[in-house]
Design a protein that fits this description.
globular, 109 residues, 2 strands, two-stranded parallel sheet, mainly alpha
């Protein structure tokens, strides 16, 4: 999950740079992850046990400290918007609402 999060953040940073080139105001990048240990590790000074994971966590911490990424927060799996695209039977109403309104009000607060 940490690798997917890091890849998603890199994609978001790239897309924001493209949008900035066409004069769209800078968009803050926020990420939501359903793995609480990863979310806690990003804001902790403690090392994670998995040495390979330390590299990815460090890279994401750098995104946060440099301001490239506004924040990364934990969101329970039941509130993940993308579940309806990957899990059979998952409700799609929340995703549809966010896409229609452009806002994630009340989700993972």
């Amino acid at each position: 999950e940490a690798l997917s999060l890091q890849e998603g953040l890199e994609d978001a940073i790239f897309l924001r740079a493209l949008l900035n080139e066409i004069s769209v105001k800078s968009i803050p990048i926020q990420a939501f992850v359903d793995n609480k240990n990863i979310a806690e590790a990003l804001y902790s000074t403690k090392f994670v046990d998995d040495k390979r994971l330390r590299i990815d966590i460090s890279a994401m911490k750098e995104f946060l400290s440099s301001g490239e990424v506004h924040n990364i927060r934990w969101c329970p799996g039941s509130m993940q918007l993308a579940d309806c695209m990957t899990k059979r039977g998952a409700q799609s109403q929340q995703l549809l609402s966010v896409l229609q309104s452009g806002k994630m009000d009340g989700i993972c607060d």
